[in-house]
Amino acid sequence: MTPSLGARLARKKPIEKLLADSATADASHHLGRSITLFQLIMFGVGATIGTGIFFVLSEQVPVAGPAVLIAFLLAGFAAGLTALCYAEMSSMIPVSGSSYSYAYATLGEGVAFFVAACLILEYGISASAVAVGWSQYLHNLIFNISGLELPRWMLSAPLVAEGYSLSFGGDGVINLPAAFLVFLCCALLLRGSKESARTNAIMVMIKLGVLALFIAIAATSFNAGNLVPFAPNGFAGISAAAGSIFFTFVGLDAVSTAGEEVENPKRNLPLAIISALVIVTSFYMLVALMALGAQPPAEFSGQEAGLSMILQKITGSTWPAIILSAGAVISVFSVTLIVLYGQTRILFAMSRDGMLPEIFHRVNPRTMTPTANTIIVACFVATIAAFLPSAILWDLTSMGTLVAFTVVSAGVIILRYTKPEIPRGFTVPFFPFLPIISILACLYLISSLSLIVFKLTGIWLILAAILYFTYSARNSRLEKDVANLEAAA
User: Fold this and answer.
1) Whole-angstrom Cα distance, residue 78 to residue 453?
2) What are the domain boundaries of the chain?
3) CA separation (Å) from 272 to 199, 206, 258, 265, 439?
4) Cβ–Cβ < 8 Å for 17, 105
5) Range 37-479 classified under CATH 1.20.1740.10
6) Which residues contact 172 (CB under 8 A, 6 or more apart)?
7) R_g of the chain, CA atoms, integer Å
8) Does residue 432 have a cis peptide bond before it, meaning omega lies within 30 degrees of 0?
9) b/e map of 137-174 (b: 16 or more CB within 10 Å)?
10) Residues 217, 314: contact at Cβ < 8 Å?
11) Residue 485, pLDDT score
């Protein structure tokens, strides 16, 4: 008997089955556990620090003024509440798929599929946007070292964003460095999770050292007068900036995508998520404060390689800018690496559930990585990075992140009442108030995003719905399990 549409959308995948699938002995469909707690913390920091500090200040200081500091706090507060919810969910369900898998267990297949669509949007778009920004710092680094100016045709997309619409007219043909970065990360991911995690940890330590250098040098030129007027555009400007800045906390979700590859996941996943949040928020606030104190807000607008330029002005020398540009190049490499990693693991989990073709679920037994999946994702992300400008991509990433965070917070509430007996390595304090506040904070930030973001997200979800009803619903493993039981009866 074919299930009704409502039954298909509402059916849930039992947590026991999620855990059993992740423990399969089939090497061609199984990911190995090789990531340590320290490496997992570096995953969270690596996927987060970089985008928010190296790029977003030039975008959001003109929106909020020095009150961008409050915007960072608001986004960090919402992310902190959600981090606690992620910690509980990941300690219960340590599998690949992150918010998608959590939604499948709590809210049903329909919600899970559309959460996955938002996650794909979040990861794919953010990786592309970050790769576009990488070109700026790479060009700045090459120029400071050699005085060589790379041709504009290979540094920017042929399309430009005008009032959140796209048109031809850019001065570039292709953003070649951005595409190169994506394929470089792809090559590293194909070598295996253990190698990728080790390389990322090294890059994260370098980037934290470089940011600490920026804080120390910028502090020598701190001018409190640059913080006045503090909020020239009022709370509306702060709110708009907070909604856009929130995408920089995508690293929290990236940590949970490693659920099947981390050692002792019930303990290490919650610790890694909370530790990464503390490190990230501390560096965000310190760097943003020092940057604002060292440079008037008006100079942030349209400033490429902003932190590097601030150091150059302070010292009158190129060497600090060279170090910072090198740190940014390394930093953004690690962001792109982990975001691509997270994207492939979400597609892996969806494919295992029958929502996508099996090619996304096939693992190379030698490297224990989903090879074809990784290559497909890299080609998709590199194409966007090469031909689209970053201006229209940031808010789309925030939308995907906020939807995922909202669902995770709701999932914590549902499972506390429906599955209280399941062991939890961590429990959210002050339940149910903190998860409810987390949901409200995310919904508030969603409401601050621009209308065009809602329109583009709506178009994306319509395309996702077509895929679900024409392929995924009929090929779902839950659908096949029911059919097999009926045939056996």
Assistant:
1) 20
2) 37-479
3) 17, 19, 11, 10, 22
4) no
5) yes
6) 152, 153, 154, 155, 156, 157, 158
7) 22
8) yes
9) bbbbbbbbeeeeeeeeebbbbbbbbeeeeeeeebebbb
10) yes
11) 43
What is the separation, in whole angstroms, between the first and last Cα of the chain?
A: 12
Report the Cα 432 to chain-centroid distance in Å.
26
Cis ω for the linkage preceding 229 (within 30 of 0): yes
8 A C-beta contact, residue 250 and residue 397: yes
For residue 285, give both structure tokens: 């606030």
Q: Is the dihedral of CA 481, 93, 442, 249 positive or negative?
A: negative
Backbone conformation region of residue 11, classed left if phi is above 0, alpha if psi is from -120 to 50, else beta: beta
Give the H/E segment covering residue 165. strand 165-168
pLDDT of residue 73: 87
Below-70 pLDDT ranges, the chain: 1-3, 22-32, 50-52, 54-55, 157-172, 247, 250-251, 304-305, 389-395, 481-489
Cα separation, 90 vs 468, whole angstroms: 26
Residue with tokens 């060292």: 294
Local structure of residue 229 (DSSP, 8 states): S
**CA 214 – CA 216 distance, rounded (Å):** 5
CB atoms within 10 A of CB 456: 18
Rounded to whole angstroms, the Cα distance separating 269 from 322 reads 36
Measured distance CA(152)–CA(56) in Å, rounded: 22
DSSP assignment letter at 35:
B
pLDDT the model gives residue 377 = 93
Main-chain phi, psi angles of 93, to 5 degrees:
-130, 75
H helical segments located in 107-175: 109-146
